[in-house]
Amino acid sequence: MTQPFDPSALFGGGAGGDNPMAGLLQQAQAMQQQLINAQNEIAATEVTGTAGNGLVTVTGNGTGEITAITIDPKVVDPDDVETLQDLVLGALADLSQKRETLAGEKMGPLAGGLGGGLPGLG
């Protein structure tokens, strides 16, 4: 005589077994919390980009907001505005690079844990 089909057997539930779907859901929730924590940490981190050996400094946060620009008076030359513009652009590029590095450090382990299996998250 055959036993009746038990759909919970497909998922490891019932008959005293653990439900792997519940474990997967817990892992997903833990990763989501880690992702939120990492995003909050990135947003709260102050990042500074510099150019010209510190003659121009641009400060911002991890979300892309610029919070301060400092320009050493030595580089303010009305006859050479291009150099100052180049220094400001260089400091902004440095800031952008440092933000990307910060995001990679904070988010990299989380993205790696997803294994690229979820679209848009790898």
UniProtKB/TrEMBL annotation:
GO terms for cellular component: bacterial nucleoid; cytosol. It is found in: Cytoplasm, Nucleoid. It comes from the Bacteria. Keywords: Coiled coil, Cytoplasm, DNA-binding. Transmembrane segments: none annotated. Belongs to the YbaB/EbfC family. Binds to DNA and alters its conformation. May be involved in regulation of gene expression, nucleoid organization and DNA protection. Homodimer. This is Nucleoid-associated protein GYA93_19795. The lineage of its organism: Bacteria, Bacillati, Actinomycetota, Actinomycetes, Mycobacteriales.
